[in-house]
Design brief:
Structural class: alpha+beta
Radius of gyration: 24 Å
Helix content: 25-40%
Oligomer: single chain
Distance between the termini: 68 Å
Strand order of the largest sheet: 2-3-4-5-7
């Protein structure tokens, strides 16, 4: 304890502690993080508290004071950003669900694609949302997997692209960058999103409010755009360019195009 006006810690007198305990007064447990602020010590502390592994890179990210990212949030609490948890939050918030279905073009009620698709390596796909233009968002991978399922988008013109590494990332994309389709077509700031911002001057406020409602970390247009373009380049080489199931020579065309002048 520290007495009134004191500057040092003192232990009480007249207290008998168990002689068989390696930490009889609890000071080792209580003060461990005060005396050792290393990422490894913090990691060990929270792994003991949570009863599960905590990635060391995530601990280093937080201790360095960097902004919270999807990767860091998933490392701290993977269950909070699972597909099931996110879909439950959307269903429980009519305002979020309505925005996603309209401005976000991510309508959870549209899970009936125009045609069935198949991926080259046979990875299963699950339609999770659609859009007014006839496009479909798919989760790629087996249901119930502990790993994040990438999100593939196909449009009604025979084009497709991987757009996110997880459902959490896809939701962040459609909330932060409503004109992401134009980004794949080659448009870049300031033209990208300009028309949408002109029609919706409160977009940034709405974006932040909806991200918070879904318990997703804050996101900016440059960050989301960079992630989208990096992920889209994986579509063909990593086997995510689909074809129409059961039809020969029916592969979709990649959506990603070079930037326009």
């Amino acid at each position: 304890m520290v007495g009134a006006g004191g500057s040092t810690w003192r232990t009480g007198s007249g207290i008998e502690f168990s002689s068989g305990s390696p930490d009889p007064d609890g000071s080792g447990y209580l003060f461990r993080l005060l005396t050792d602020r290393s990422p490894e010590a913090v990691q060990a502390h929270f792994e003991e508290d949570y009863g599960r592994p905590i990635p060391l890179d995530t601990v280093r990210h937080v201790l360095a004071g960097h902004p919270l990212t999807l990767e860091a949030a998933r490392g701290l609490n993977p269950a909070a950003l699972s597909d099931e948890a996110l879909l439950r939050r959307i269903a429980a918030d009519p305002k979020v669900e309505k925005y996603l279905a309209c401005d976000g073009e991510f309508d959870l009620m549209r899970t009936d694609p125009i045609e069935s698709i198949a991926l080259p390596a046979g990875l299963p796909v699950e339609p999770v949302a659609g859009c007014n233009a006839g496009g479909t968002h798919y989760l790629c991978g087996p249901v119930g997997s502990d790993r994040s399922r990438p999100v593939l988008y196909t449009n009604s013109e025979g084009q497709a692209s991987l757009i996110a590494e997880s459902l959490a990332e896809a939701l962040t994309l459609v909330l932060a960058l409503p004109s992401w389709h134009d980004a794949l077509a080659g448009f870049r700031p300031p033209a990208l999103n300009a028309d949408y911002l002109e029609d919706n001057p409160d977009h940034l406020e709405v974006r932040d409010r909806l991200l918070a409602a879904l318990r997703l970390p804050p996101a900016t247009e440059p960050e989301v755009l960079a992630r989208l373009l990096t992920t889209a380049t994986r579509t063909v080489p990593d086997g995510f360019l689909p074809s129409i199931e059961g039809e020969v020579d029916s592969a979709f065309e990649p959506m990603l195009r070079l930037p326009t002048e």
